[in-house]
């Protein structure tokens, strides 16, 4: 990868990273989708997605230091791939994948620094909001500053990783091969354990995970012994599982007829002159000018300003007062922000008709925003995102680029069907019912479905764990020289898989009982690996 290629690579990665905060929030910046785009355009898709899957396990939940500087998943993925592909050829090294685990460690450190700079930019957003008076200009200025920072930081991080990897190669010498395999195996094991601790919240989930783990181990070992197709076997089991899930969803959907027939209730019309599509589209940028002072207030005003101008088109002073009410403190989950935008427009229409008071706007935002924020984080970030990833994981682990691309796209589509439906449904209910939309909106996210998501994710994680460990072993076996002598271990497939599963279970117990954090586990594992390589 030449310098112009590295610059283009950094620019594209920075553009993808804008999905995290500035706009959309459609999972485009998740490691697996970032790896899919960058791998398709710049390098080996198989290696890219192997890195993406590893980081996807690590970032299944947001990880942060002192609850301020969270790691940047897009930068971690991009810096690993950019460093791996951009390192100049070194005498004696077959390809850059040998140094991928060391690039991943350096990229993780850089990802924390990147997010720390994002926190500093929030103070700049406060200054921008005080100097500029049009919310659209504020949004554009804040997003441009974030994009410029991301591009510069991504480029510097990738160049730093590229410069450090040759020194690591010369330092370790022949020990780089066993160290690389051990690092990948340990990192992936701890990541999978970290994912498991977020899912095994009760005995049912724990037993499902353990049973699926045994089943997955059998499905990995038997085809390897008898020469059958591993991919076909595992995909068959997943297809049966998804069929059962589909039947269960169909049965539950049929039971909805026992509920109150809400279709027979005449819904009030939306406020006249208000364009729901304008609010819906602008709601994707609600966090572009996020700031510590009033959080999402600039994005909120940007989305509803045009609708307010239509409601108060004949009273400019009342319009200014309505904009001031909408620019006060506001924070909620971005997927539920259209619901509150519609609610505020509904209340403003009532104020114009003399049926509500101006104080009702801020009161409603303060009472409804925080509960929806907690519901959205629990529903989408902690459960649905994980379930969609695990359902697509079998395809992501196949050695066929088309299957891998289909798996990543399936994850993206399945998640965003629910995401986009929630945005539009919340906006429609808010415009029609105002504050009365809360009960109907929350009923569509029942707690029993969250429990079902958790159990399904635990089952899929247990079933996928042996598949991922075997894929790591086969990938390393095809790319690295023979490792049995260097690692002082017999070259046995079963032994390697059981060793990986042992690390997963041990790390899960440690993380579950909070004896060590995920960072301390990685640090201890790194220290042990350095000692083992030194001894070897």
What does this structure look like?
- The protein is built from 20 helices and 2 strands.
- It has 536 residues and is mostly helical.
- It has a two-stranded antiparallel sheet.
- It has helices at residues 3-17, 31-42, 45-58, 73-86, 100-131, 135-172, 176-199, 203-226, 230-254, 276-282, 297-311, 316-326, 337-352, 359-396, 401-433, 437-443, 447-479, 484-487, 493-512, 518-535, and strands spanning 64-65, 69-70.
List the helices and strands and how they pair.
Blueprint: H1 3-17, H2 31-42, H3 45-58, E1 64-65, E2 69-70, H4 73-86, H5 100-131, H6 135-172, H7 176-199, H8 203-226, H9 230-254, H10 276-282, H11 297-311, H12 316-326, H13 337-352, H14 359-396, H15 401-433, H16 437-443, H17 447-479, H18 484-487, H19 493-512, H20 518-535
Antiparallel strand pairs: 1-2
Helix pairs in contact: 1-4, 1-6, 2-3, 2-4, 3-4, 3-7, 4-5, 4-6, 5-6, 6-11, 7-17, 7-19, 7-20, 8-17, 10-11, 11-12, 11-13, 13-14, 13-15, 14-15, 14-17, 15-16, 17-19
Which labels suit this protein?
536 residues; mainly alpha; two-stranded antiparallel ribbon; 20 helices; 2 strands
Q: Major sheet, described briefly?
A: 2 strands, antiparallel
The level of helicity is: over 70%
Order of helices and strands: HHHEEHHHHHHHHHHHHHHHHH
Give the count of helical stretches. Answer: 20
Give the low-pLDDT segments.
255-266, 484-490
Count of DSSP strands:
2
- What is the subunit organization of this protein? single chain
The geometry reads as globular
Q: How would you classify the helix and strand content by structural class?
A: mainly alpha
Estimated radius of gyration: 25 Å
Compute the average pLDDT. 80
Strand content: under 5%
Strand order of the largest sheet: 1-2
Taking the alpha carbons of the first and last residues, their distance comes to 33 Å
């Amino acid at each position: 990868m030449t310098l112009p290629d590295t610059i283009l690579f950094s620019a594209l990665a920075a553009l993808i990273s804008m999905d995290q905060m500035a706009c959309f929030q459609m999972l485009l910046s998740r490691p697996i989708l970032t790896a899919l785009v960058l791998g398709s355009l710049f390098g080996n898709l198989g290696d890219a997605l192997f890195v993406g899957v590893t980081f996807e396990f690590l970032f299944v939940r947001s990880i942060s230091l002192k609850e301020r500087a969270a790691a940047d998943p897009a930068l971690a993925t991009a810096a690993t791939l950019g460093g791996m592909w951009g390192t100049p050829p070194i005498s004696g090294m077959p390809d850059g994948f040998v140094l991928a685990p060391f690039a991943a460690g350096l990229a993780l450190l850089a990802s924390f620094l990147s997010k720390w700079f994002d926190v500093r930019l929030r103070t700049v957003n406060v200054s921008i909001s005080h100097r500029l008076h049009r919310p659209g200009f504020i949004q554009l200025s804040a997003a441009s500053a974030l994009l410029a920072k991301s591009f510069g930081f991504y480029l510097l991080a990738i160049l730093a990783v590229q410069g450090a990897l040759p020194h690591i190669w010369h330092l370790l010498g022949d020990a780089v091969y066993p160290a690389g395999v051990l690092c990948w195996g340990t990192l992936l094991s701890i990541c999978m354990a970290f994912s498991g601790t977020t899912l095994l919240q009760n005995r049912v989930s724990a037993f499902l995970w353990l049973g699926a783990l045994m089943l997955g181990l059998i499905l990995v070992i038997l085809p390897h012994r008898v020469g059958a197709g591993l991919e076909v076997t595992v995909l068959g089991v997943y297809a049966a599982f998804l069929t059962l899930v589909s039947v269960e969803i169909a049965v539950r959907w049929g039971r909805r007829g026992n509920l109150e027939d809400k279709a027979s209730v005449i819904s009030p019309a939306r406020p006249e002159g208000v364009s729901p599509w304008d609010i819906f589209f602008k709601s994707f940028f609600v966090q572009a000018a996020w700031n510590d002072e009033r959080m999402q207030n600039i994005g909120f005003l940007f989305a509803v300003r045009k609708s307010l101008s239509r409601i108060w088109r004949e009273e400019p002073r009342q319009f200014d007062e309505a904009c001031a009410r909408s620019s006060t403190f506001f924070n909620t989950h971005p997927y539920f922000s259209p619901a509150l935008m519609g609610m505020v427009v509904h209340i403003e229409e009532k104020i114009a008709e003399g049926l509500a008071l101006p104080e009702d706007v801020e009161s409603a935002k303060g009472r409804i925003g925080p509960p929806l924020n907690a519901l959205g984080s629990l529903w989408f970030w902690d459960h649905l995102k994980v379930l969609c990833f695990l359902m697509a994981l079998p395809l992501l682990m196949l050695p066929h680029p088309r299957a891998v691309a289909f798996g990543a796209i399936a994850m993206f589509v399945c998640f965003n069907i629910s995401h986009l439906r929630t945005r539009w449904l919340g906006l429609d209910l808010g415009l029609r019912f105002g504050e009365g939309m809360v009960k109907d909106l929350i009923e569509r996210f029942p707690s029993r479905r969250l429990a079902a998501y958790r159990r399904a994710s635990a089952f899929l994680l247990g079933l996928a764990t042996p598949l991922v460990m075997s894929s790591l072993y086969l990938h390393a076996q095809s790319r690295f020289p023979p490792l049995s002598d260097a690692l002082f271990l017999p070259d046995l497939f079963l032994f390697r898989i059981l060793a990986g599963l042992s690390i997963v279970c041990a790390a899960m117990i440690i993380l579950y009982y909070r004896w060590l954090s995920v960072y301390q586990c990685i640090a201890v594992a790194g220290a042990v690996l350095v000692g083992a390589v030194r001894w070897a």
